[in-house]
TrEMBL record:
Residues 14-56 form the RING-type domain. This is E3 ubiquitin/ISG15 ligase TRIM25-like. Gene3D superfamilies: 4.10.830.40, Classic Zinc Finger, Zinc/RING finger domain, C3HC4 (zinc finger). InterPro entries: E3_ubiq-ligase_TRIM/RNF, TRIM8/14/16/25/29/45/65_CC, Znf_B-box, Znf_RING, Znf_RING/FYVE/PHD. SMART domains: BBOX, RING. Keywords: Coiled coil, Metal-binding, Zinc, Zinc-finger. It comes from Crenichthys baileyi (White River springfish). It holds the Pfam family TRIM_CC.
Length: 267
């Protein structure tokens, strides 16, 4: 049952947006898309004068007319009522942070590996040749990355796998025998490891400084609190002294007045 539902969901997903088809239309090659998605796709292709299917890459002479696929639209509505929705991730669509496959035509799928020899990135389907053919067994596969062309030496057209510490730049093995001869050099992997260690040390130092500052701040807060307590105590003691002094002055004044009045009252 789950496989049947998964198949239904896949058949009603738009190859462009990977969401449930909205106002589905079927183009001459047989693939279906959301009406707005295929319109937007062909709007971008208008300048080149070539219109293609984002799914299979087939091109058409002129911009095909679009007509709503009523049976498919009814199927979508039924599946919606049944609570079925296609999963965006199942289609391998390229997200903002993903690297696109360089081989896919039409709708680009998400790359799963990049090859430093081919200088290209491949989706799960197109990377299989690297696994299956002995011609690619010496190729270096890495996690998908952008800017592969930046890994090529502009002078010798070779992959730059060496880091020159003297000039602080990436170089290829031919550079090592020419303008960088005699320089302090290491492999790119070794330099990366060294930089990671330095970064870790810097991170620990920064963390220690933060902890020291937090400790100093806590001590400062305690000192301020102690000063406030001391100030409150001083104010309280001062008010008590002044109150007692006022009472003493009032008593002394009353006693003096009484002494002045006593002789007069005895006559």
């Amino acid at each position: 049952m789950e496989q049947s539902e998964e198949l239904k969901q896949d058949s009603i997903a738009c190859p462009i947006c990977s969401d449930l088809l909205s106002d589905p239309v079927t183009i001459p090659c047989g693939h279906s898309h959301c009406m707005n998605c295929i319109k937007s796709h062909w709007d971008r292709e208008d300048q080149e004068g070539i219109h293609s299917c984002p799914h299979c890459g087939q091109t058409f002479s002129g911009r095909p007319a679009l007509k709503k696929n009523i049976p498919l639209s009814e199927l979508v509505e039924k599946l919606q009522r049944d609570g079925l929705k296609p999963s965006r991730s199942d289609h391998g669509s390229v997200g903002p942070e993903d690297v696109a496959c360089d081989v896919c035509t039409g709708m680009k799928l998400k790359a799963v590996q990049s090859c430093l020899v081919c200088l290209a990135s491949y989706c799960e389907k197109h990377i299989q040749l690297h696994y299956e053919s002995s011609a690619f067994e010496k190729h270096k596969l890495v996690d998908p990355r952008r800017g592969l062309q930046e890994s090529i030496c502009s002078l010798h057209d070779e992959v730059m796998k060496i880091f020159c510490r003297t000039d602080e730049q990436l170089i290829c093995y031919l550079c090592l025998m020419d303008e960088h001869k005699g320089h302090e050099t290491v492999s790119l992997a070794a330099e990366r490891t060294e930089k990671q260690k330095e970064l870790q040390v810097s991170r620990q130092q920064i963390q220690q400084r933060i902890q020291d500052q937090e400790k100093d701040l806590k001590l400062l807060q305690q000192e301020v609190e102690a000063i406030n307590v001391s100030a409150d105590k001083a104010v309280e003691d001062s008010e008590k002294i002044f109150t007692e002094l006022i009472h003493s002055i009032q008593k002394t004044s009353s006693d003096v007045k009484q002494q002045i009045r006593s002789p007069a009252e005895t006559k």
